[in-house]
Amino acid sequence: MHFIKLKTSRRWLIFIIAGTLFTLSQFYRSSVAVISPNLIQDLNLDAWKLSTVSASFFYAFALMQIPVGIFLDSIGPRITMTLLTLVAVAGAFLFAIGESYHHLAIGRVLLGAGMACNFMGTLKLITILFDPKYFATLSAIIVSVSTAGNIAAATPLVIMVQFMGWRNSFMTMGGITFVIAFLFFFLLSDRPGTKLILSHKNNSRPMIGDTLKRAKILFSQKDFWIISFSTFCRYGVFASVQALWAGPYLMNAIGLSPVTAGNIILLMSIGIIIGSPLSGHLSDRIINSRKRIIIPGIWGMAIILCILVFLPDGTGKITLSLLFFLFGLFSSSGQIMYAHIKEQVPHENAGMAMTAINFFTMGGVAVFLQGMGSVMKFLYPGASLGVPAFRSAFLISGVCLAIIGVCYTLTSETLTLEITKSQMSFHRNEDSGTQE
Prior knowledge:
mainly alpha, 0% strand, 18 helices, 79% helix
């Protein structure tokens, strides 16, 4: 594979705009948590309907991952990311004007489908534009910076909703998303010398048939399924808490105010901001390992959930804040799973590999969102949003994390071999002056 050579300033501008699109994705996926009281009051939603509205985003997001991987490898990130982001704009507007549970769910489906490409597309651009040895670090930076979207979906969204209402807030965010999509499309315009297409020795893009053949090889690997199951549970648990259940837990069960709950949810995002680049740097430069960073993070999440299960009544805000911050910090190591799977396939199919993993990542959120709601409603039908209900859901989630922490020890370490091969390939291409 050849790597595109662009001016440094243009390369980083593309990186920033693509990262902004992913930041918006993070905002939309987490936005239901703090507006859940508004939705319950305005549309008379129960725990099941609320979880379904939130999960709709993630079901659509997950189902889009396979076609997204194919399109990223065949037609490129520019068209794929732009068109899908416009679908998300339509979803934001529909959600804002929705008058029923079904309208909200459809709006969230469009949002999930539209935002499905922005993380994978950004990773694909990193693969094209930067030295492969920096992939884990740059992807970690993207995850860290994009957490601004999760932060915006916490206390800032609470304040925004108090000022203009939740409907006008989503109309505003839809307009902002449209503007960013417009800028992205024209920044990546196909002018001579700047065409962002992955090139090969025959100067052609990989054919869809070739991509599917390599996918069969990917799906036959033991590590693929272990990593897939691990990210299904790891991010499924984390995002279901962050995107929905942390809000009702802190406000309905614990009795905190919306602003205080928003601040604590924000601390999860701060944990991600700190932990993502730290774990990426440790993996790439210090420990030189994927597994030895990922596994402790998974176990750390399990321990935090167990602490929440046995937390005594009347626990103060400081303790809760620390626990939710650490939950985000430990979770951040999971983003290295994308680097782990990328290193097991040819560069030409990096998009397919990462989107296949992302299918399980986002599918896990949808399943855990509704799964936790179902467990709480089944075990405590009269108090499905009470403290005992949340403790049961947290305990089950913690057990799932403990299991995948053990399973992940069975994966192979790929970092050392990958860095050596990537450095040789990258420097050969630089020496030959390859560019588009």
